[in-house]
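Q: What structure does this chain adopt?
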Amino acid sequence: MANFLFKKLKQKYATNLKYDSDSAGVSAIEGIPPTRETIVCMAKRGIDIKAYRSKPVSMDIIYKSSHILTMTHYQLQFLKRQFPKETHKMYLFQSYCNNLKSIPNQEIEDPYGKSMFFYELICERIEQVTNRLIIKLRKES
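A:
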């Protein structure tokens, strides 16, 4: 969701921003389509993600990225262990966007397997944080 929300918000508010986004999971299986709930959440925001397919994180993605933002501490620690030379560009998504070091409740929980209501809450939270990310990146550019 964050990847597609970033692309939409960048197109809407910061077309000259020199950053792009991608999405990969630390335990993702290649080629899995989005859940029905994710498709609905994104469609409500005018984003069609039906053609998207999951992919696992790779060395290529890590090395090409200027920023690696994770939703959870587990994902962050996993990537830091797997790619120790790239830790300087790894951050917890919400903490990074809010200019916070590390405080409780800065993780964004994976809604997989939860209710549609929970998906909506998570999507709304990601959208708010992604807005802050666009603002932060605009200031840094």
